[in-house]
C-alpha cells in the first residue's frame, strides 16, 4: 500500500506544491496523440509521402513525360536499376518512380484544396444554421438534406460531364458537394455549445452574431472539425482515383494515382507493377489518414482526458 502514495512532507507550502505541470487542452491532446505509437508511425509516414510528392519528381534525371522505347515494361531488373528506373518503366518507357511522385503531387493537391473548401464553406454554413436556429436553420438544413438525398458521386460525375475533365473541374465538382457533411457536423456542435454560459453571456451583452460564431462557437467545435477534415482527405483521394479509373478524371499528360492505376489496370498482364504500386499507395494513404484521424478523435475527446 505504501508504494501507492508519495509523501510530500509536513510543511504546508511543501504539501501544496504541484508535482504535475499544468497543461492546456491542446497540449494535453498533443501529449495523448504522441502516446499512440501506431498513429505516430502513420503520421510520420504521411509526412514522408508529402515530402516525396514535393521533391520526388526531381530526385531522378528523367521527366515524368520523358520516353525511352528501348526500356518498356521494365521492373527491378539489373539493366533498369542501373539506369535509375527504381520503380521500373511503363509501356512508353517512362520512369515510373517520377510519375508516381508527380501523381502524388496532383492527388494530394486535389485532396487538400477540396478539404479546405469543405472546411470553410461547411463550417460557416453549419455555424450560421446552428446559431440562428428557427426558420433559418430549418430551411438551410432542408436544403442540405435534399442535396444529400442524391449520392455525391452522381453530382460530381454530372459536373465533370458538363464542365469537361480537368484538374480545376475535379476540384470544383468535389468541393461543391463535400461541404454538406461538414455543415451537418458543425451545426450539431454549435447547437450543443451555444447553450453554454459564456455564449449566453456574449448574446446578452449584444455581441455581433458573426463574432460569436467565429470567436466562440467554431473554436470550441474545432476538435470535431479537424477530425472530420483528416478523415475526408483519403476520401477525396479515393474519389479522384475512382473518377480517373472510370476515365473522367485527370486528363493526359497530367498524372495522378488514380489515372496511373487506371493505365496500369489496362496493362496488368504485361506490367503488373504499373497497377500494384499506385493501388498500394492509395490503400496505404487511406489507412494512414484513417488511423491518424481516429487517434486525433481520441486525443481531442475531453471525456478521455486524464
Automatic annotation (TrEMBL):
Gene3D superfamilies: MetI-like. Keywords: Cell membrane, Membrane, Transmembrane, Transmembrane helix, Transport. It is found in: Cell membrane. GO terms for cellular component: plasma membrane. It is a multi-pass membrane protein. The keyword Phosphoprotein does not apply. This is Oligopeptide transport system permease protein. Belongs to the binding-protein-dependent transport system permease family. It comes from Hypnocyclicus thermotrophus.
